[in-house]
Amino acid sequence: MELIDRVAAYDPTVDEALLNRAYVYAMRMHGAQLRASGDPYFAHPIEVAGILTDYKLDSAAIVTALLHDTIEDTPATREEIASLFGEEIAQLVEGVTKLTRLELKSEYTKQSENLRKFILAISKDVRVLLVKLADRLHNMRTLQYVPEHKRERISRETLEVYAPLARQIGCNRFATELEDLAFTFINPRGRAAILQRLADLRDQKGAAVADIARDIQDTLSVAGIRARVSGREKSPYSIWRKLQRKSIGFSQLSDIVAFRVIVDSPDDCYLSLGVLHRKWPCVQDRFKDFISTPKSNNYQSLHTTVIGHKGARIEMQIRTEVMDRVAEEGLAAHWGYKNQSYGFDEAAATQWAERNPIANLRAIVQIAENGGDSEEWVEHAKLEMFLDQVFCFSPKGRLISLPRGAMPLDFAYAVHTEVGDKAIGAVINGEHKPLRTPLQNGDQVEIITGVEARVNPDWQSLTITGRARAAIRRSIRQTQRDDFIRLGRSALERGAAQVEKTLTDMSWRPAFERFQVQSEDELFELCGRGKIAPAKVLEALFPGLKLPATLTTDSFSRIKDGEDATAFVRGHALRPQQKIVFSRCCTPVPGDRIVGIVEGAEVHVHSIECEQLEAYEGRKEVWIDLQWTLNAEKNTVSPARIRANMRNKPGVLGQVCTLIGEAKGNIVNIRLSNQQVDFLDAEFEVEVLDARHLTNITAAIRTNPSVEGVERIRG
Question: Which PANTHER family match (predicted)?
Answer without folding.
Answer: BIFUNCTIONAL (P)PPGPP SYNTHASE_HYDROLASE SPOT, GUANOSINE-3',5'-BIS DIPHOSPHATE 3'-PYROPHOSPHOHYDROLASE
